[in-house]
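Today's session is about reading a structure prediction critically. Students often jump straight to the picture, but the first step is always the sequence itself: look for stretches that repeat, for charged clusters, for runs of hydrophobic residues. Only then move on to the predicted structure, which in these notes is written as discrete structure tokens rather than atom positions. Here is the chain we will use throughout the hour.
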Amino acid sequence: MSSGILKANELSEIKEVLASDQASTMIERDVYWPKWDTPWWYFLLLEETDRLEEVPVETFKELLMCADRQFLHSFPISEDELPENLNPYTEIVCFCFLGSLMRLASKVDFDAFAWLPWAKDWIHRYQLPDGGYNCDEAAYSGSGKGSLISTTVMLEGMLAYVKFSGNYDEFGKNIEKAVSYLLKHHIYLSTKAAEIDGTEWDKIIFPRFYEYDFSRGLEAVLDFVLQTGKKVRRSNMEKAISLLEKKLSEGLNHSEKQWLSEEKTISYYIEAPVLFKDMANVPLVMKKLNSTAENPFVVAKLNAIKEKLNQAQSNGQLV
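Below is the predicted structure for this chain, in token form.
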């Protein structure tokens, strides 16, 4: 048995795949797992390839409804907060999922919190003292340190949501704290501007899903600047800006990290989840986009970030 049943060889096939009965069946079973051939990842791929107009509305509604039913309505910090018989891998929302859901829903004109009202308080409740968020619950009972990827995805989600709702004040302070966190980390480094061990965040990744590279954090900060009209310190962005210029000058046109096939996943055999014994199944359409072959979406993304950078500079917002 395979980890999933949804298959798409080309981007043009995803709309039909997501509108299928198979997609509904998989969402009913689990809105998230397995990677990478279930509806959630295809929705994200449509976003990354600028095809959100192809999102089937009814399938997305079903995903929102099932997410409300599937997930625990809090983020447990310790084991004694876990309800009996709860599977923490399939029934607890991570901040990468929440931020992505906020972002994606807002872009297709859905209010994520109309479907998951309990999650709205998470933005205030679970922001760490340093301004970050972290999918590792140990950060809330121990280090108190945010994660660059969790924080960036939550920032993306908050920015998209306040743009959709028109109410910046609701999450404005949280957004500004998250931006401050990224700037303190020079977008992709430690607070001392040193490379973080075990990361390759100087390499461009496509598709991103929940992965991180410097361009993602840089774009999130630029989106904040352009969306709000506020100013930020350029000095804390300088290393990321230099990397962007380098990639553009070199004519980078593909993902620099082929990572999708390296991931393990939760699989389903009959209806029981099997935890992280199988490698994730990579649909052909994703293999093509995560290869060393020329990829127009990488080129378009880098150029789009450069345009945002130029606009922010022209506005005098990088000081």
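Discussion point for the tutorial: The chain has a mean pLDDT of 95.
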